[in-house]
Design brief:
Elements lengths: L7 H8 L1 H30 L2 H21 L6 E3 L14 H4 L1 E3 L6 E5 L4 E4 L5 H8 L4 E2 L11 H6 L7 H4 L6 E7 L5 E5 L4 H6 L9 E8 L1 E2 L3 E10 L1 H13 L5 E8 L2 E10 L18 H11 L3 E6 H5 L10 H4 L6 H7 L7 H6 L3 H10 L1 E8 L3 H11 L5 E8 L14 E10 L8 H14 L3 E2 L9 H7 L3 H9 L10 H4 L6
Parallel strand pairs: 1-2
Antiparallel strand pairs: 3-4, 4-8, 5-9, 6-7, 6-8, 10-12, 10-13, 11-12, 11-15, 14-16, 14-17, 15-16
The structure holds flavin-adenine dinucleotide, NADPH dihydro-nicotinamide-adenine-dinucleotide phosphate (NDP) and lanosterol.
Catalytic activity: lanosterol + NADPH + H(+) = 24,25-dihydrolanosterol + NADP(+); 5alpha-cholest-8-en-3beta-ol + NADP(+) = zymosterol + NADPH + H(+)
Enzyme class: oxidoreductase
Subcellular location: Endoplasmic reticulum membrane; Golgi apparatus membrane; Peroxisome
Length: about 500
């Protein structure tokens, strides 16, 4: 037994988690997805969602007006259960605040003339690709975890390998509709209520309840022509990655670093033409996990081109939950397992979360890092080195993004459009000096100093003052006063800090 287990049952639950996951969670996840698929397909075909939308919004308004009438006793949050959210922890405030039911789960309209898709906030990324791609459309930034919701990505943030071109998820959104703390419904966009429009991203539901979002559409082609470029040497990796990220002819840019000196750079463009001998349908259940497939490129030591079906590309990290599933189902990439059970993979993150025990939580807390740090691209090399010295976690997810100089929580460095890179650290730190809290505080300080940002699905150990230094609250504070949010919603910090989550 080890330090994280107090009893034999805990030991079994940690080290044999896969038994439970394979026997119960995988079939359950499969059935759950099948039901969602069927339900959403029927709703989309019947076009019933737009007719019901107004009534559903009225119900949100009614709940808020009741809250006002009852004397605004406690602050409000959405009623979405904490275990369903794509985040390691469960928000504590869901138990104490008034839960507002925002049961808005459908795609409302695909307007190919205006090139806009109008969706409700609980629409997921899996639902969007499944619906839009067969129609020949897609959204410019499609964060790859199937269960991420539009509401969560707007109120938090979303990033993908096309972000160097199109920005973060908020930058592809054209308008938001919200119910405010007095129960009124407002729409905002760049031209209509612009201050509200720019304050919504990263506000974590603390300015109002989102009820609909209009997102830009771009034409979808059938494949992504992906070039894998194995790279050696820290300087070379930084140089090649920066060059590829600045080249807007690349529609997709992503890097996976396997050590300080070894990485694979992937650049891609959409295409309808395919060289059949280079077709790789990586989404098929029997295919190797994507990060393993990419790692194998290092051995080949030459550029490799593949054609990947667009939807398979988008969900390339889904089947192995990046590389997190190797800790939960260690033999998940075994050929036989893939052949016989791969079609049920992955277990749903929400169900994993719902069934994780305290001992597993403790284990992750002490021996695991789950963080995304967004830093200006010119600090790429220094940041990688610092993260290596502090955590020594590999693979690293490297994703460039463009940050326009808009008002709001994220202010671009040097008040102009700036290229950033998201460095994703997911895994068990091998650095001996790693201490969960101290190491993170050190990194958070570094990231603030270089004018970077932390993604807030992750644990943040910053104090309120440090948090305000990292994120510009000027416009946010103004809007909170103007919209009388104080009694209605907590501040962002009180929703995302370590103390607010269990
Ligand atoms: C109208 C509609 C609504 C949907 N709503 C939801 C929803 O709310 N929530 C939800 O989670 N899913 C939703 N889906 C998606 C669906 O449940 C799953 O994606 C299902 O597994 C798709 O099965 P398929 O392979 O037959 O799909 P196809 O469209 O045939 O898949 C095309 C290709 O993409 C690959 N692929 C598909 N899904 C994934 C994936 N998740 N990871 C990796 N590769 C993949 C397949 O292997 C295949 O090669 C919806 C689908 C539709 C049509
Ligand atoms: N590739 C990527 O970009 C990835 C992004 N993420 C992160 O995951 C999170 C999204 O996860 P997801 O499970 O979809 O969302 P969550 O349920 O975690 O919601 C995130 C926040 O958005 C608020 N919110 C959601 N819907 C509404 C609404 N209709 N009205 C008002 N507030 C709302 C929630 O408020 P409340 O607390 O009241 O429910 C919550 O504070 C984001 O923080 C994102 O950055 C994670 C992995 C990958
Ligand atoms: C910007 C990008 C691409 C971020 C990707 C972040 C993912 C790697 C994170 C988001 C949610 C996340 C923290 C999660 C987990 C792993 C890493 C995830 C998937 C897991 C599955 C690890 C195992 C845990 O027991 C538990 C099930 C609670 C969590 C759930 C959330």
């Amino acid at each position: 037994m080890d330090q994280n287990c107090d009893s034999l049952s805990e030991y079994v639950l940690i080290h044999y988690r896969w038994v439970f996951v394979c026997l119960f969670l995988l079939p359950l996840s499969f059935l759950y997805d099948l039901w969602l698929y069927f339900r959403n397909w029927v709703v989309f075909q019947l076009i019933s969602a737009p007719k019901q939308h107004d009534n559903k919004v009225k119900f949100v308004q009614k709940q808020i007006r009741d809250w006002v009438a009852n004397g605004k006793k406690t602050q409000m949050c959405t009623a979405r259960p904490g275990w369903q959210t794509v985040c390691f922890r469960v928000p504590r405030y869901k138990n104490t605040m008034r839960n507002i039911k925002v049961n808005l789960v459908d795609i409302l309209e695909v307007d190919t003339t205006r090139k806009i898709v109008r969706v409700e906030p609980l629409v997921t990324m899996g639902q969007l690709t499944a619906t839009l791609n067969p129609l020949g459309w897609t959204i410019p930034v499609l964060p790859e975890i199937d269960d991420l919701t539009v509401g969560g990505l707007v109120m938090g943030t979303g990033i993908e390998s096309s972000s160097h071109k199109y920005g973060l998820f908020q930058h592809i959104c054209v308008s938001y509709e919200l119910v405010l703390s007095d129960g009124s419904l407002v729409k905002c966009s760049k031209n209509e209520n612009p201050e509200l429009f720019y304050s919504i991203p990263w506000s974590y539901g603390t300015l109002g309840f989102l009820t609909a979002v209009e997102i830009r559409l771009i034409p979808a082609k059938r494949y992504v022509k992906l070039t894998y470029k194995p790279l050696k040497g820290g300087d070379n990796i930084a140089k090649e990655f920066t060059t590829a990220s600045s080249n807007l002819n690349n529609e997709f840019v992503e890097g996976l670093a396997y050590s300080e000196d070894e990485a694979v750079l992937m650049t891609g463009v959409q295409t309808n033409d395919v060289e059949v001998n280079k077709l790789n349908e990586i989404g098929k259940w029997y295919k190797p996990w994507f990060f393993i497939h990419v790692r194998d490129m290092l051995k080949r030591n030459e550029d490799v081109v593949e054609y990947i079906p667009l939807r398979d590309y988008y969900h390339r990290h889904t089947r192995s939950i990046f590389w997190e599933l190797q800790d939960i189902i260690p033999f998940g990439n075994n050929f036989l397992f893939r052949i016989f059970f791969g079609w049920m993979m992955p277990p749903k993150i929400s169900l994993l979360k719902l069934t994780q025990t305290e001992a597993i939580k403790k284990l992750y807390e002490n021996n695991h890092v789950l963080q995304d740090m967004l830093v200006p691209i010119e600090t790429f090399k220094d940041s990688i080195k610092l993260f290596r010295d502090t955590f020594n976690v590999y693979p690293l997810w490297l994703c460039p993004f463009n940050l326009p100089n808009n008002p709001g929580m994220l202010r671009a460095k040097d008040s102009q459009e700036t290229l950033y890179v998201d460095i994703g650290l997911y895994g068990v730190p091998r650095e001996k000096s790693f201490k969960p809290k101290e190491s993170m505080r050190k990194i958070e300080k570094y990231v603030t100093d270089v004018q970077g940002f932390q993604m807030l699905y992750a644990d943040t150990y910053m104090t309120r003052e440090e948090f305000r230094k990292m994120f510009d609250h000027t416009l946010y504070d103004k809007l909170r006063t103007k919209l009388e949010c104080k009694e209605a919603f907590p501040e962002v910090y009180d929703k995302v800090s370590r103390a607010a989550r269990s």
